[in-house]
Design brief:
CATH class: Alpha Beta
Strand content: 25-35%
Structural class: alpha/beta
Oligomer: single chain
Helix content: 25-40%
Number of domains: 1
Length: 265
């Protein structure tokens, strides 16, 4: 998108770090960022808007741990009816503004039997089960046409985050995230199939953003909050309310982890 569509106070801010807060995790921007400005998505010409509860639908920018941070307080999803190019428009915008490292957070269902509700998972790799790719049909003037995906999630930074968590005696998992389209939750049979494919957690976001970020040369870190056990593993039916309730219950731990991760970047 053209930066001329954005307010000068944002373009002049020159953010270094991009941050996308997933379902139920928007509190981080309110609690931690020394806010300089904010802009709702609806105020940006041609920009999508968030339609999901738990997604405030605005950019917040400011300072955190000495870094200039641009935060999406709420994201867009494929199941909302947006095209892939619309979902990933914020990533291209962040790169044009100067962002060099991107933190992607989400709420996810745990597939790995070792995971419990309230765990955090550092994303090691992902499986794209969306049936499409955000780079299809797009000839861009920045980045490779056929980007390598050998290391989507920055290995060196993940190591620093793991070491920090160990020093804090924080329970931090590391595994593979699988993205489905949603909005229906998965069936038990699908979860068994995903486990066979090597998935440790499942959700409905993050992968398109990560693909475009790597295509643009950004360093990427993904953190999932395991808000529930996936279908067939959980003791009862799944709901979006359970997702947001669990995210809120680990508010303090999530804040500490993400703040430290940004400081280490």
């Amino acid at each position: 998108m053209k930066l001329s569509k954005l307010p000068t106070e944002l373009t002049d801010f020159k953010p270094e770090v991009g941050l996308i807060l997933g379902s139920g995790l928007g509190f981080f921007a309110d609690d931690q960022i020394e806010v300089v400005g904010h802009l709702t998505y609806a105020e940006i010409e041609g920009f999508p808007v968030s339609t999901v509860p738990g997604h405030a639908g605005q950019f917040v920018w400011g300072h955190l741990e000495g870094r200039r941070v641009l935060c999406m307080q709420g994201r867009f999803h494929f199941y909302e009816g947006y095209r892939m190019e619309q979902l990933t428009l914020p990533i291209r915008m962040m790169q044009k503004l100067g962002v060099q490292v991107l933190f992607l957070t989400n709420a996810a269902g745990g597939i790995n039997p070792c995971y419990v509700s309230g765990d955090f998972m550092l994303i090691e790799d992902h499986i794209n089960f969306l049936g499409t790719n955000p780079l299809i049909g797009t000839v861009v003037d920045v980045g490779a046409r056929f980007p390598d995906m050998t290391e989507v999630y920055d290995k060196a930074l993940r190591q620093k985050i793991r070491e920090w968590a160990q020093r804090q005696s924080m329970r931090l998992q590391e595994g593979n995230y699988l993205a489905t389209t949603g909005p229906s939750f998965e069936t038990p049979a699908e979860i068994r199939a995903f486990a066979t494919l090597g998935a440790d957690a499942v959700g409905m976001s993050t992968v398109p953003e990560a693909i475009v970020a790597r295509q643009l040369g950004l360093r990427v870190i993904g953190i999932s909050c395991i808000t529930n056990a996936a279908a067939g593993i959980s003791s009862g039916p799944l709901s979006h309310e359970e997702v947001t309730e669990t995210a809120d219950s680990v508010r303090q731990e999530f804040t500490a982890l993400l703040t430290a991760a940004i400081a280490l970047s």
